[in-house]
Specification:
Blueprint (H helix, E strand, L loop, with lengths): L15 H12 L4 E5 L9 E6 L2 E7 L5 E5 L13 E2 L4 E3 L6 E3 L4 E3 L3 H4 L13 E7 L2 E5 L7 H4 L16 E2 L5 E5 L3 H9 L21 E5 L2 E6 L3 H4 L2 H4 L13 E2 L2 E2 L3 E5 L4 E10 L2 E10 L4 H16 L23 H15 L15 H18 L4
Helix pairs in contact: 1-9, 4-8, 4-9
The structure holds FE2/S2 (inorganic) cluster (FES) and fe (ii) ion (FE2).
Length: 388
Amino acid sequence: MTAMYHRLPVSAYTSQDWFDREQALIFSRSWRYAGLAEDVPEPGHYIAVQAGLNNLFIVMGRDRRLRAFHNICRHRGTQLIRAVGKSQKALTCPYHDWTYDLEGNLVSVPDEAREYPGGLDKSCLGLKPASVDIWRGMLFVHPDPRAPGLAEWFGAVDPHLGPHKSDQLAEYPEARQTYEIKANWKIVVENYIDVYHLSHLHANTLHMYDHAKAEYGWKGPHYHFWEPPSAAYAKDLEKNLPTPRVIPQPHTGTWVPMLFPGIGIGASEDSWNLFIITPLGPKLTRVENRTKLASASEWEFSKQAWSSQGFWKNFGGPKYSGSDASGEDDPMASGDFTAEDIYACEQQQKSLQSPYFEVGPAAAGESPVIRHQQAVLDFLAAQETPAP
Ligand code: FES
Ligand SMILES: [Fe+2]
């Protein structure tokens, strides 16, 4: 049996050239997560998102339809709107006050008669449309107004993602966070889908699931993963869940897919989490987390917390402690699996600049890492090949 070898050169994780190619050919030509459906709940609400080289926004029209546009004023290109906003009847560019309606039509130009004495055909100067779609309670945008929908893009992997109905769950705002990791986005993805590290880096933090029984695979560029609860956790599972169930019995386990490019979901018996990866530079990546829990009463949450106390008080702990730990804020002494992952990604990235770095053979549990590298290569190659 021969060992598997990595498919990407070190420069794929360090160079501006690779970063620019991926921005142009992957993140500008695929569906990008923009938010949750409830982020744009009413006419006039909007949300902007960077999708590779494109800044796009979604707005709900007076007809309650969602539309996506390129966030580019048709006059001199200024970005029309910022981040998230609401309750505007029209979208006015800050530069010269050109104003568009919620359906993207240019409706007013200040001093039009004086400034454009030869006339101005406003009907040709509407905002350029993009695509928007909803899938599993999430909003996605695509820069191409003719992009095939999400049912096609995620169709093959969808049946492997678990029975969660995320649009029926309630966001837990305290868990919403954004942070930066000093590593290439593919290092962050590879860590997410590395099955080998689960029992090692997270020896004390994720052992409520049985990694030896993990089932995982690919549908096109999308990765799916499921593993059952460990024997100790499963023994009294209904009692041990920290928060009320979000999927019906007898479903158990955790589903942790990584959809292309960089859209992670972590969904278990009692929670649904998003892990959205955005490349910021060759060695810098932003991660956004959002969490949804059962739409249940405070009393039900307290009851479940109380019943699971016995299990969780004996669970977990730092991987390093005492003289192995470097200090109080050592991520390896945190007992927090996210801190462990960030630490591993950043330490790995640091070594990539050494002329002595040489990647070793990949283990069986790292086959997803290799497969993701191939997915990146395949996507780039498909975009670089001119259409017949
Ligand atoms: S650039 Fe938008 S109105 Fe001039
Ligand atoms: Fe991890």
